[in-house]
Amino acid sequence: EIVLTQSPVTLSLSPGERATLSCRASQSVGTYLAWYQHKPGRAPRLLIYDAANRATGIPTRFSGSGSGTDFTLTISSLEPEDFAVYYCLQRGNWPRITFGQGSRLEIK
Amino acid sequence: EVRLEESGGGLVQPGGSLRLSCAVSGFTVNFNYMSWVRQVPGKGLEWISILYSGGATFYADSVNGRFTISRDTSNNTLYLQMNSLRAEDTAVYYCAREDFYLSGSYYLWFDPRGQGTLVSVSS
Q1: Which of residues 17-56 of B touch A (CB under 8 A)?
Q2: Which one of A28, A33, A44, B64 has the largest count of C-beta atoms within 10 Å of its C-beta?
């Protein structure tokens, strides 16, 4: 089973600052990695797929990079609505789907 | 309009059973890959099951042998039959569609208006 480890567990920043979240896979997943945003009481929202592609309707301040085992989600300038929990997800180990444990982005 | 509406959650005793439903509109459930995902309160997301368009199924180890995913094409609904429930199955359960991307992979799409359905396993 591929394990995804996210860091940091919690990140405290202010609106307008840059956020960088990391996801490390226990073995290569190629670029079959996605990022999701999850807010309390809401369904998860796909932000990035295939490591670096923004999903439909996702603002350009969200970007993804990486391949193999190391991946990054960057939010260039935080908006108030961006404070949430972020998860990475791998599809490199078909058919198993694995989520990372999540990174909480909170307002400083 | 594409919608996924989960229902069927509730309070059940350990060892009991429950069937969750995901009413699908705007697309045909049997032509798509569909999954169930859950979130234990205060913890992260966990994928638990997938149903392929061809009918094959796959489960996470944590639920394999206890949960069964299925669909009913007559009412365009996805189901999750949950048996031998444990306290650790307490969670909000979401259904999701697997969307195909040109890279050849699939990623989960959740209805933005979906809130999931809460299952509580307790005596």
Answers
A1: 35, 37, 39, 44-47, 50
A2: A33
The sign one gets for the Cα dihedral B114, B9, B39, B59 is negative
Question: Averaged over B27-45, what is the pLDDT?
Answer: 94
Inspect the interface and report whether the beta carbons of B115 and A42 lie closer than 8 Å: yes
B77-122: pLDDT as tens digits: 999 999 999 999 999 999 999 999 888 889 999 999 999 999 999 9
- Range B73-78 average pLDDT: 96
Q: Are A14 and A95 in contact, with CB atoms under 8 Å apart?
A: no
Strands A70-75 and A19-25: antiparallel
User: Beta strands of B1-123 (E only): which ranges?
Assistant: 3-7, 10-12, 18-25, 33-39, 45-51, 57-59, 67-72, 77-82, 91-100, 106-109, 117-121
User: Among partner residues A32, A42, A87, which is closest to B45 by beta-carbon distance?
Assistant: A87
3-state secondary structure of A70: strand
